[in-house]
């Protein structure tokens, strides 16, 4: 069975494994360092710069559906939401940290998020109220709800796969990673 593997760079920060085989549809998988899905408690946050006292701070409410908890915290308008949450010991889902995947995707219930570097979601999904916390800045008080990353991925790319949902081929991924 032949397999075509290529490593793609996402804005020079994260890498993804693009694989195809005669038996599977093409799929795009994030390549996290430890091979699995992350939560912010597993990796130290990026350095948070101190905001000027003149920068507005907004109240952020995150309904974490996967863990069944609600987090309330303050985020300066010039700071990423995910990084600020991590600095306050709040664990939220993430993977790439650079806006290239959908692990930290949320649906905005109220308020506005600026996300100029959110490459992992389309303009169409942004217009429907989806955002990425890792590269999102609050521009008002916001209330958001975490999403299942596979669901968001399907909303964005599902129409390109005529045979149904994308199947993750962990065996092929293991073989590919083992050959590096």
TrEMBL record:
Any one GO molecular function term: 2 iron, 2 sulfur cluster binding
Regions of compositional bias (Low complexity) in chain numbering: 47-59
Keyword Plastid: yes
Keywords: 2Fe-2S, Chloroplast, Electron transport, Iron, Iron-sulfur, Metal-binding, Plastid, Transport
Basic residues: bias regions: 37-46
Names of the cofactor(s): [2Fe-2S] cluster
One GO cellular component term noted in the UniProt record for this chain: chloroplast
Name the record gives this protein: Ferredoxin
Species of origin: Phoenix dactylifera
Lineage: Eukaryota, Viridiplantae, Streptophyta, Embryophyta, Tracheophyta
Gene name of this polypeptide: LOC120111900
């Amino acid at each position: 069975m032949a397999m075509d593997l290529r490593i793609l760079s996402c804005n020079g920060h994260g890498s993804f494994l693009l694989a195809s085989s005669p038996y599977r549809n093409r799929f795009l998988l994030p390549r996290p360092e430890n091979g699995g899905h992350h939560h912010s408690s597993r990796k130290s946050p990026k350095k948070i710069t101190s905001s000027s006292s003149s920068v507005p701070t907004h109240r952020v409410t995150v309904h974490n559906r996967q863990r069944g908890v609600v987090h309330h915290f303050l985020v300066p308008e010039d700071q990423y939401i995910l990084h600020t949450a991590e600095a306050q010991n709040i664990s939220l889902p993430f993977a790439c940290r650079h806006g290239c995947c959908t692990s930290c995707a949320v649906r905005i219930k109220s308020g506005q998020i600026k996300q100029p570097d959110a490459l992992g979601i389309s303009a169409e999904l942004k217009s429907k109220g989806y955002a990425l916390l890792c590269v999102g800045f609050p521009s008002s008080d916001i209330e958001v709800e975490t999403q299942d990353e596979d669901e968001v991925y399907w909303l964005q790319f599902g129409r390109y796969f005529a045979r149904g949902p994308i199947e993750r081929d962990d065996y092929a991924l293991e073989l590919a990673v083992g050959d590096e």
